[in-house]
Amino acid sequence: QVQLVESGGGLVQPGGSLRLSCAASGSFFGINTMGWYRQAPGKERELVAAITRSGTTNYAGSVKGRFTISRDNAKNTVYLQMNSLKPEDTAVYYCNARVVFTNYREYDYWGQGTQVTLSS
């Protein structure tokens, strides 16, 4: 059983900052790519940022330069530092992890989601 537990969402004013965390727990060999997705009301879930185990990152164009993804492999945790937040960043943010098991099979797992709301 693998669980991803997110934290750090909340209500923030435009221009503010938030830091999301997602910790993976359970019995597995390791984790490859970890990422953050978001889904706004009436819209499809979209990739925000992703990071490989070696630290290569990928960002959506709309957040590049404002958001920073990082991870701590020893803690199986991924972070998303969000700065200069805009109203259009309002969404439920989901953590994703590509988990590797001892039989070398890989499966995607998702967190429960954390709400980020921009409001003045």
Structure, briefly:
It is built from no helices and eleven strands. The strands form two sheets. Strands 2, 4, 5, 6, 9, 10 and 11 form a seven-stranded mixed sheet that branches. Strands 1-3-8-7 form a four-stranded antiparallel sheet, with no helix packed on it.
Q: What does this molecule look like?
A:
The protein is an all-beta fold and 120 residues long. Helix content is 0%, strand content 57%. The protein has no helices and eleven strands. A hairpin with a 6-residue loop joins strand 4 and strand 5. The chain is elongated and about 50 Å long.
Individual helix count = 0
**Residue share in β-strands:** over 45%
- Radius of gyration using CA atoms only: 14 Å
H/E element string? EEEEEEEEEEE
Number of strands: 11
Low-confidence stretches: none
Structural class by SSE content:
mainly beta
What is the rounded distance between the termini? 40 Å
What is the general shape?
Answer: elongated
The share of residues in helices is under 10%
Roughly what is the average pLDDT, rounded to an integer?
A: 96
Biggest sheet details: 7 strands, mixed
